[in-house]
Amino acid sequence: MSEAERRRPITRFGLGTTQLLLIAALIIEGAGPIYWVFKGSISSTQDSLRHPLALWPEEAHWSNISTAWTSLDLGRYLTNTVVLVGGSWFVQLFVAVTGAYALSVLRPFYGRYVYAAVLATLFLPGTVSMVSLYLTIQDLPLTGGSIANTPMAVWLPAGAHAFNVLLMKQFFDGIPKELLEAARLDGAGPWRILTRIVLPMSRPILAVVSLLAVMNAWKDFLWPMIAITDTEKQPLAVALPRLADTSNQSLLIAGMLIAIIPPVVVFLVFQRQIVRGIAFTGLK
Fold first, then answer.
1. Mind listing the pLDDT tens digit of every residue in the chain (284 residues)?
2. What is the dihedral of CA 42, 46, 51, 57, to 10 degrees?
3. Is-contact 134 204, C-beta < 8 A?
4. For the chain, what is the radius of gyration of the CA atoms?
5. SS3 letters across the chain
6. Pick from 173, 157, 219, 263: which is nearest to 274 by CA?
7. How far, in Å, CA of 107 to CA of 102, rounded?
8. Considering only CA atoms, which of 221, 112, 131, 218 is closest in space to residue 169?
9. How do the domains of the chain map onto residue ranges?
């Protein structure tokens, strides 16, 4: 479209209207479910069933949130979730950084074969290895012990995330090689180069990988349900579906609201770093 066509009133009107409609559709698609959960959390069960699409309940029950916190024991499940998410985040970040650093900067002679193996795992659905993974946590190689019903059963498998390694490697490949060579000439070893040069320059991608790790761990349902069968140690994503059979609907929706607040806050706080990292890596 030429500049002259853009200046035509009918063209400006059409473009402006289209942009407004697209923005409105994006807002409804993104914020609509969150608002529905919020509305349902302060509504009575009867009100939600009678008027599921109402914009506001007939009578707001703000006490539903505090009641859900105490009656559903959400504090314990939230603590379990934070522990599992924190450990999974650390393990994923550690494996992604060290693996990408070895493949991109250190470059051992067997690196191409390791890189090919990492790529190959992307073509395998997670459910394919779930049985063997469960048997492994039940009977660990060499030690013969079991880490089932412990946070380690979720933390350690989380590290085997090939996409994070490849994403980190792509960013490390963009670091000027001259800078790394200059550091080596100055006597810097691999550990010093990693901590003093590579990591300080990689804050955007660290934010992106951290967000992906936190989001995946927070919403993960299937593997925590299999690895942690003790109901006292389960996270929110596993506990809420289990409580749905015996809990009031309004209290259950209030629990869902409590469950989605932390990841939303994390994104809002670190959105600038996340957007910068996505721009650097070209992540879609």
1. 567 776 777 777 788 888 899 999 988 888 888 898 999 889 888 888 888 888 888 888 889 899 989 988 999 999 999 999 999 999 999 999 999 999 999 988 898 999 898 888 888 887 888 888 999 999 888 887 889 999 999 999 998 888 899 989 989 998 888 999 998 988 889 999 999 999 999 888 898 898 889 988 999 999 999 999 999 999 999 999 998 888 888 899 999 999 999 888 888 887 777 676 666 555 54
2. -30
3. no
4. 24
5. CCHHHHCCHHHHHHHHHHHHHHHHHHHHHHHHHHHHHHHHHCCCHHHHHHCCCCCCCCCCCCHHHHHHHHHCCHHHHHHHHHHHHHHHHHHHHHHHHHHHHHHHHHCCCCHHHHHHHHHHHCCCCHHHHHHHHHHHHHCCCCCCCCCCCCCHHHHHHHCCCHHHHHHHHHHHHCCCHHHHHHHHHCCCCHHHHHHHHHHHHCHHHHHHHHHHHHHHHHHCCHHHHHHCCCHHHCCHHHHHHHHCCCCCHHHHHHHHHHHHHHHHHHHHHCHHHHHHHHHHHCCC
6. 263
7. 6
8. 112
9. 1-71+247-265, 73-237
Identify the CATH class of 73-237: mainly alpha
The phi, psi pair for 144, rounded to 5°, reads 75, 5
Q: Contacts for 226-231 with beta carbons within 8 Å, 24 or more apart?
A: 226/130, 226/134, 227/134, 227/137, 227/148, 227/149, 227/153, 227/154, 227/157, 228/148, 228/149, 228/150, 228/153, 228/154, 229/148, 229/149, 230/149
Alpha carbon distance 92, 163 (integer Å): 10
pTM of the model: 0.85
In this structure, what token pair is assigned to residue 168?
Answer: 């980190």
